[in-house]
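Review session, final week

We close the course with one last complete record, chosen because it touches almost every idea we covered. It is protein-glutamine gamma-glutamyltransferase, a protein from Tachuris rubrigastra with 690 residues. Go through it on your own first, then we will talk.
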Amino acid sequence: TAATQPSTNWHLKENAREHHTSKFSGDELVVRRGQAFTITFNGTEQPEQNLIFIAETGPKPSKAAKTLATFGISSTASTEGWSAVLQSSSSNSVSISISSPHNAVIGRYRLSVQAAASGSPSTTRLGTFILLFNPWSSGDDVFMPSKDECEEYVLEEFGIIFAGNKNHISSFGWNFGQFQGDILDICLSIMDRSLYYRQDPATDVSHRHDPRYLGRVLSAMVNANDDQGVVLGNWSGTYEGGKNPTSWTGSGEILQSWKNSGFKPVRYGQCWVFAAVLTTVLRCLGIPTRTITNFSSAHDADGNLRVDEFYDAEGNHLERGADSIWNFHVWNESWFKRNDLGPSYSGWQVLDATPQEESGGIYQCGPASRNAIKEGEVDLEYDCPFVFAEVNADCMYWNYDSATGKKTLILSKSTEIGESISTKAVGRDDRVDVTRDYKYEEGSTKERDIFKKARKKLGLEDKFDPTAPTPEEIEQKPDISGKFKVAGSPEVGKDLDLLLVLANLQSYAKTVHVKMTAWSTLYTRRPVREIWKDSISVTLSPKEEKQFPIKIKYNEYQQQITTDKTIQVTAICHVEDGVQVLVQRNIALDNPAIDIQVLGEAKVNKEVDVEVVFTNPIDTEVMDCVLQVEGSDLLTGILELRIPPLKASEKSSTRFKLIPSEAGPKHLLVNFSCDKFADIKTFKMVNVTN
């Protein structure tokens, strides 16, 4: 017989304080494994020592799978399994301290108590609670010794994501919001909708004690490929039927939409969206996680640690072959032990939810030990060769003649890929460079030795490589050098001023025919629309350097530019009696500025006014202006405000009210869009007091 007792007291406040779960808003107990929590319930007629507790999770609880535990009252907490210690008892109630093991399966548990009396035992359901990973506990695989790091990588709901390109790093805020509303519930449903769970629910649940397993499963579930996961990727440059990836400001709206639509993939995401949503899910479950941006990131589709880019004689970047070099790519690092690889591979692990290449037949990536990547141990699980290539591949730039199918190597570079690898600082809104944690100094012998070691492990070093350049192609030295210089900091709405600088390296005159193009691209460098082209012929005297100013007017690029605001300029220099020289530059344009002011002091449960100011920087009217505002603990959900059209140079000032719900440093995120400017983002830290 089973009776439900509504009278269980879960001591929500006290337990949450002890377990660092106070920020969850529901009325269900949320605790962390390997740590005691206290509950009180109505006394049974039996003496306490006769009580047996049953904690179970998943669809088919079993002791063998460690998804079912039965335990009596003992004098001290067990370090091995589940245990219960009597705190106090009176004639009508019992207080018990329950401890779970450090390696318990995480998820929602059902708790009941049985009185083992003579005759038939009666079972009483006490209710449900949720068990999470515990980075504060030294026995847990996700243990993080630094309290400040736990605070940032588990409890912080605001993040900064770095973007742009290696010459011009930009950043924007993101609201992870892992403690808001029913995000925890949604994270639990994500686990229950994975392919692994559908194939074998009981086994899947029994593996949920392992951050390595869950990290991999969730990297697959955050993208929609294979499993109707959370976010559908789109890198086409047109985003009909969904939201432009650059328009999101937080994970909450995405996870809520996924749930509210009956678990249909949310349209659309690009790399930072996948990484930000995975950060939310893993922080929510208690695995310390952060986003990492890699600049000049290689997508090595054929696994030869080399990426090839092709250009035609006019200087157009061709979409040939599956390899590509992205201006930036965002992935995740999560912190946990690698019991499968050994202590030297524990610590930060790379996970990537962006669907780039299949692994084990589905789009998932990692965990790849960051230490293994640095040491070139590409044979270690999981997906180390792909991640190693992202930060280390060599680049080959080819001239391709579509008429003859002939390709000629223009140049190769071994120091181009994997620069300024970036993440947000702990406790500050600053950028930290972690490139040295991924590789030894670029160009050092150690770094080249590691690259050779990786090639050897992948069986590449003695293979004949049909795409490798022949010796005579390699040895030709260029007679001239070239580079593009960008004047000032380029901004959408302004003309783009460049200089092409050409220098004759020889001691005799050289004639050069230059073909130049400018294309709007996605951040993946995929060309979208041609903006401009030109050609010049020039004779350079011995050792002479010449500069050629180039102006691309706003009205020339305004219709062509994508919401990624990136332009690739290329010059192919055909040198008479010499080898071709390729000069290219990826330019990330900044949006015009937008400003937030908090008018007055922000106090808990008190209204405070906020003003957002935007000045139209161009000489035509802008229409369809929309302001989107969000921020955990500052407002619920997303505030959307429509703003009237703005004439040339007109300034708009928009006011709205916030009612903060919690004290501490909180972040307000603003996104402004109109017909001429997409997704102008900014954020402001608001210090809320009681």
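Two points worth writing down before the exam:
The radius of gyration is 29 Å.
Residues 309 and 357 are 19 Å apart (CA to CA).
Good luck, everyone.
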